[in-house]
Amino acid sequence: MKYVGLVLKSARRSKRRTALTILSVAIAVFLFASLRAVLDGFNAGTEASSSTRIVTIRSTSLIFSMPTSHADTIRSTPGVQDLTWANWFGGIYKDPRNFFANMAIEPESYLRMYPEIELTPDERAAFLQDRTGCIVGDGLARRYGFKVGDRITLKVGIPTYGTQDYDFTVRAVYRSGGAAVDNQSMFFHWKYVDERSLVKGQAGWFVVKVANPDQAPQVISAIDQKFANSPYETKTDTERAFQSSFVSMFGNLNLLLGSISLAVVITTLFVAANTMAMSVRERTTEIAVMRTLGYPSSTIFLLVAGEALVMSIIGGVIGVVLARVIVSPNLMQAGAFIPVFGVNNANAATGLALSAFIGVVAGVIPATMASRLKIVDALRRVA
Amino acid sequence: MALIELRDVTKSYMRDAITIPVLDRVSISVEGGDFLGLMGPSGSGKSTLLNLLAGIDRPTSGSIRVGDTEISSLSERVLAGWRARHIGFIFQLYNLIPVLTAFENVELPLLLTSLSKDQRRDHVMTALGIVGLGDREKHYPRQLSGGQEQRVAIARAIVTDPTLLLADEPTGDLDAKSAAEVLTLLQRLNQEYKKTIVMVTHDPHAAERASHLLHLEKGTLVEQAIGARG
Predict the structure, then answer these.
(1) Which residues of A touch B69 (CB under 8 A)?
(2) Number of Cα atoms under 13 Å in the Cβ half of residue A215
(3) Judging by beta carbons within 10 Å of its beta carbon (0-12, 13-18, 19+), is residue B4 exposed, middle or buried?
(4) C-alpha angle with apex A122: A119 to A127, nearest 5 degrees?
(5) Residue B201 backbone phi and psi in degrees, to 5
(6) How far apart are CA A105 and CA B86, in angstroms?
(7) Torsion of CA A94, A98, A104, A105, to 10 degrees
(8) Which end of chain B is more exposed for a tag (fewer CB within 10 A), N or C?
């Protein structure tokens, strides 16, 4: 502990250089934690998927709809316990930049299917009773200041829903009870939208609840077989696979974001190592003096390595704090695609560990240089 | 028994496969409480001799005994511990750590000991008091004059109460007044505190303060003069 003051004083020797090094580590850790948050956010829906829910879409693509009459056929499949459907509405709130998910749902069955959408009985009743009513997630409500009773007008984003704007009344603000449902979405009655749609009776996807998760593969196969060779062939999968395929539409995010993180970390490592090496070179005489005073090589090694570690960890703490403050649904509008968005404790801890790793690796070579310094040569260099 | 015994000490360096002799079979005895001045022209090997005594360099051959310890055979790690306990080194250019205060500079050698914070403070303030800078403990080197910096460096050298004080041209970078103050201080440490001092110098005025003088020329001891003062 008695050397801590010495390490801190040494780090303050060149304030600008130390500040820039700390900043570079902070940025690296910030980017790492943020990118991990994005990845985790994308994966959260997949991780939290229910094993009893399966999803049926058109075999061609998610963007094509199918008749709601499929519902009866699916419901009659052995092993199916419940069913609901929804449509991606794609409405625009005031400006296209105000993007959030808004979906037309068959309300009663949808709320039954997704107990993660948390509403009180009164809120639930108020929504079900109003054909033009809607519910919004508490995250979305915070972002736009929506409250119960407010009128929300959505412009039509997909031509099949007509040309006239849709008016909704907020009947409840729901809480998300699990990562399978985000708190950044808006749900309203499918019937209200269907009445004004150019093509009636269409569903974007069906969500099916199976009685026994072990039977899901058989149910999936049975549903798709029923619609084989029809104009509306289907592709049914588990909710997990559905979420994964949704994420994969963005490409190989793990590889992409992982590569960016790695590049940033390696660059920062070189910056920090170079800074420490410069610092040691400038302090050649001081190190020689300390060795003359009796400081063993091992202590010199620890002092230099400790300095790199301290700088790096300070940068790491700053990076993590910034990431936790900035990367949150309240400040960044990513919720529509990423149900759970934020730097969790595990990512914060990994970010800090990463900063410690940068500190240790960046400090090893300069610390070795310092500890192996020949006293007489170092003193002669300046004498 | 003499405090320091050098027997047939030879030191040579290799430069591009050429052996450069610096010291040639030098033998010296220094008694405890002595103030020895080492004189000689540049390149005569006096600083090398001082470095060998300090244990920061090793002889090519010969033996160096300080007290009961044959230091030429110690490992690097043991030698570092030995330096911390037995050697106080005063450099020509003071070599204080610029980011540390006078107090912290003097405290540096004590961080290697098991003394408590309060004990370290007592030792540091005593050492600063001896060199007359008790009121400058919070000053940084840049806030001190050259003479004051050298006195802080002396305080750093004596704070562990070492067996031996080694001074390499301690007045070489000082004006005449500051140099005189530093020499008076060294003389006081020798006479009042019975410190054994070996001082390398070019300056005849500095050499006058020593109780014994040795002259080195081309790596050999050419003359052994007994100082007038003692």
Answers:
(1) none
(2) 13
(3) buried
(4) 70
(5) -155, 155
(6) 86
(7) -140
(8) N
Q: Show the tokens assigned to B116.
A: 């408590």
Residue in B77, B92, B111 nearest the CB of A383: B92
Q: Considering Cα of B201, then B204, then B206, then B208, what sign does the dihedral take?
A: positive
Residues 6+ apart with CB under 8 A from B170: B90, B91, B92, B150, B154, B182, B183, B186, B199, B201, B206
Q: Which of A2, A294, A376 sits opposite B109 (nearest CB)?
A: A294
* Whole-structure pTM value: 0.73
Verify whether the Cβ–Cβ distance A293 to B108 is below 8 Å.
yes
Could you tell me which residues of chain A have a Cβ less than 8 Å from any Cβ in chain B? Answer: 2-3, 5-6, 9-10, 12-13, 285-286, 289-299, 375-376, 379, 382-383
Q: pLDDT tens digits, residue range A271-312? A: 888 888 888 888 899 999 999 999 999 999 999 999 999 999
Residue to mutate among B79, B108, B159, B164, with most A CBs inside 10 A, is B108
Task: Please name the amino acid found at residue B59.
Answer: P
Q: Which residue of B has its CA nearest to A11?
A: B99
Low-confidence ranges of chain A (pLDDT < 50): 335, 382-383
How much is the mean pLDDT over chain B? 92
Chain A positions touching B109 (Cβ under 8 A) are 293-294
Instruction: State the pLDDT confidence band at B228, using cuts at 50, 70 and 90.
Output: very low
First to last CA, chain A: 33
Across the interface, whether the CB atoms of B84 and A286 are under 8 A apart is answered no
DSSP state of B111: G
Interface test with B, best of A293, A301, A375, A382 (most B CBs within 10 A): A293
* B163-216 pLDDT per residue, tens: 999 999 999 889 999 999 999 999 999 999 999 999 999 888 889 999 999 999
Comparing alpha-carbon positions, the chain A residue that sits nearest to B112 is A295
The residue among B3, B1, B2, B44 whose CA lies nearest residue B26 is B44
How close is the nearest chain B Cα to the Cα of A317, in Å? 25
Residues of chain A positioned with their CB less than 8 A from the CB of B111: 2-3, 6
For tokens 């990076």, the residue is: A319
From residue A1, how far is each of A6, A141, A359, A369, B121 by CA, in Å? Answer: 10, 50, 19, 23, 16
Give chain B's contact residues with A (Cβ, < 8 Å): 51, 54, 56-57, 76-77, 80-85, 87, 89, 91-93, 95, 97-100, 104, 108-109, 111-112, 117, 156
Alpha carbon distance B86, A232 (integer Å)? 93
Cβ contact B112–A286 (<8 Å): no
Q: Which residue shows structure tokens 């559905």?
A: A242
Dihedral angle at the C-alpha atoms of A91, A93, A96, A98, nearest 10 degrees? -120
CB A81 within 8 A of CB A209: yes
Question: What 3-state DSSP class applies to B135?
Answer: helix
Question: Strand pairing of B35-39 and B212-217?
Answer: parallel
Strand ranges of the sheet holding B18-30, from the earlier edge strand across to the other edge: B18-30, B4-15, B61-66, B69-70
Is residue B88 a contact partner of residue B54, using CB atoms and an 8 Å limit? no
